[in-house]
Design goal:
The structure is a single chain. The protein is α+β, with helices and mostly antiparallel strands and 238 residues long. It has a single domain, classed as Gcn5-related N-acetyltransferase (GNAT) (Aminopeptidase, 3-Layer(aba) Sandwich). It is 35% helix and 28% strand. Strands 8-9-7-4-3-2-1-10-11 form a 9-stranded mixed β-sheet. The chain has a two-stranded antiparallel sheet with strand order 5-6.
Length: 238
């Protein structure tokens, strides 16, 4: 059995976990710097890394294997809807969520697999990109956010991940006017079966994870989310 760990923290965390964050950031730059420069003329990817709320990192034998970032938003706030991440989402679609009472959302970006773990590499029988995606979806399921958004790039085949995890297809879009992507939404009532069918390795990693390296993630979720009132965990768009 491979030695695998899963940790959640914040990209802005300092001191105690600076070395860990620096290691993750080094992989992030290795994977994304060249692509961002080619696509957007952006040679500085630091903003893309640090402008997030939660960093989900999967380690294998102490090495960074894969990670992704998530961020929280309230769609009722115009400034949140104006974030660059939503620039390729139809305004009418976001308004539909607001009208349905589904405004407390989270979204993921920059799913990253370290070069040594790319391709067909599996960890405990699960493809690396799928494993970290499963962990993030579990995190959403046990949180108080009403909807979890994803945008999967078709040129990397990541659009298949959403299908495998019970996501609802919300349509197609173009990021930066050139990258084909599938917009998806995860809803609590529609992914229950997927959560139940998660492999044992995913469940063990999630429930054994620590938040900021010390607090159990299940305790952190309860403290931050579950006690929040008014979350529509049983609603989804028709």
């Amino acid at each position: 059995m491979e030695f695998i760990t899963y940790r959640l923290s914040s990209p802005q965390i300092t001191r105690s976990y600076a070395d860990d964050i620096n290691r993750v950031y080094a992989v992030f730059r290795e994977v994304w710097d060249q692509e961002e420069e080619v696509l957007n003329g952006n040679e500085n990817t630091s903003d893309l890394f640090f402008n997030n709320d939660t960093l989900h990192v999967l380690y294998c034998h102490g090495e960074v294997a894969a990670f992704a970032m998530t961020r929280y938003a309230n769609l009722e706030l115009i400034a949140h809807r104006h974030q660059s991440w939503f620039s390729s989402w139809p305004a009418s679609l976001l308004q539909d969520f607001i009208q349905k009472g589904l405004s407390e959302v989270c979204y993921t970006n920059h799913l990253t697999v370290a070069p040594d773990f790319q391709g067909r590499r599996k960890i405990e029988g699960v493809y690396t990109s799928l494993l970290v995606s499963q962990l993030i979806v579990m995190h959403y399921y046990y949180s108080g956010e009403e909807v979890f958004f994803g945008a999967y790039r078709k040129n990397r085949g990541t659009d298949k991940i959403g299908e495998a995890l019970g996501a609802t297809n919300l349509g197609e879009t173009l990021f930066d006017g050139r990258i084909e992507a599938t917009m998806v939404g995860y809803f609590h009532d529609r992914i229950e079966q997927s959560i139940d069918e998660m492999p044992a390795i995913t469940k063990n990693l999630y429930f054994g994870a620590k938040h900021h390296g010390s607090e159990r993630i299940t305790d952190a979720v309860q403290r931050r989310h579950v006690m929040c009132q008014g979350a529509n965990r049983r609603l989804s768009l028709a």
